[in-house]
Give the backbone structure.
Amino acid sequence: MKKITRATLKSFIEKNKDNLFINVQSVFDNAHKRNGMESSLEGWVEAKETPCNNDTTFEIEHVLIVRGCTGGNNFYYFDDGVYQGIGYRNCAGNGIIAVKKAA
């Protein structure tokens, strides 16, 4: 299986921009507050654009893919039978960016 990188994630987001869901599993609150985001989400929600347009959010509210984290970013493929996408873990939190699979 091919290694997932920031470029892989960025391409996935761009290709599926109008059909994305996120599941934020944990956050480092201060990082989210600095980027103008509330940190409380539960379960799968539709992805919303954020006014914070930079390469740490990929223009998605509640997502922070930071550079310079101790340990870096860890990306992985995700598929639970309902959603399919890319998961991430880093020092600012972890979550999944996905699309709903066709029924």
The mean pLDDT is 81. The longest helix spans residues 6-15. Helices lie at 6-15, 29-34. DSSP finds two helices and five strands in the chain.
